[in-house]
What does this fold into?
Amino acid sequence: MKQLAEVHAELGYTVYTDTDESVLVLNGYTSDLLSDVMGNAAEDSALITIQAHKNTVAVASLIGIKAIILCNGRTPTDDMLASANEEQIAILGTTDNQFTASYRLAKVLGIVS
Amino acid sequence: MQTIPINTYSSPTVILELIYRLKVKDVMTKRLISVTLGTPMRQVQQLMRDNSITGVPVVSKNRLLGIVSMDDIIRALDFGYIEEAVDHHMTKNLILLEDDMPVSFAISYFDRYSFHRFPVLNKDKELVGMVTTRDITNRLLLEINREVEHLEHMNQTTTITDGLTKDIQTFTVLKHDFENAGFASTQIKKKLKQSGLFPQVIRRAAIASYELEMNIVVHSYGGKITAEFSPHEVIITSEDSGPGIDDVDRAMEQGYSTANEWIRSLGFGAGMGLPNVRSVSDDFHIESSAEGTRVQSIIRFSDAQYKEKQL
It folds into this structure.
């Protein structure tokens, strides 16, 4: 478990949104299939994905995901950012791919050593 | 230059739909004041003043020969040929619109050319109207008003009193409207949250409604989501107007999908939607024919699943 602020500070990821950084991130989920995320991601997770559009925010908001990490240098669209700020879901960006982002996040969260 | 500040490719879906659905003939002025060859420029000037218009077409039968614009008149006054006939002084180099073109065409024409108005011809090349930016903005405002009114009606919550107070929310979901996708499920989730249910229950309802909503967006011609709330269950129903699911049994299999590449690239069409809905539902029904698909997901909860005792 880590505060969002610590997560992106330790990973060095770009923050695109202006949301509460004290929220706790408990877990992670890596997928580009939104139905898969919907059905299987745990609450209070960070979602690691390349789906940089508004619908990802809708899914995150519905199931209680706190942050979306966009991989491979993808950047959020304007309407994605607007809706993320509104729903208070953080969007982070990195050039890491999903595999790298996943193991780095797992390390930061203390899930693996 | 007069432009219309509407982006013809990246505006909201409702607006795009509007400017492609409306044709030039729907917005143009049909009551035309025109003159024939031989008319003195002076007379055109008077016509403009009397009718508060800034351009007068010159026609022969129904054929457009040119337009006398305000600029043409000013030049005639400047150079002293205001008493001469329009024949040699009208603007002949014209950009034309056709009455069957979508309004989006007219909008981009105004952005591209410096004209204040475009003559409109029909299929037989006859002059049938004129379009100004004002014609377009007026009509668009009217249509946008109507759309907004329509959207407001769509998302009404109706309360039915049948002894038990049952709240029913209905949401219209449009085909390929990724822009607003998730609205119905967000509203349903909000409503359940207010009732003080535990997050686990709310999550099940959110998953069911979102998947059903996305199915309408992705696969159907459009439809609606209905949520009926009562103290111990929420019934989420999706109904669409076709084209129906060919093989319902296969559609219920994990990983089976008929979505195209574009839909898949957005992260949908993984073949998990309906299986997800079934797995979170206490009761699940599906029926489908070419006329449409109806799916019902019932999620039940006991008093123990409320955080606080409800009112």
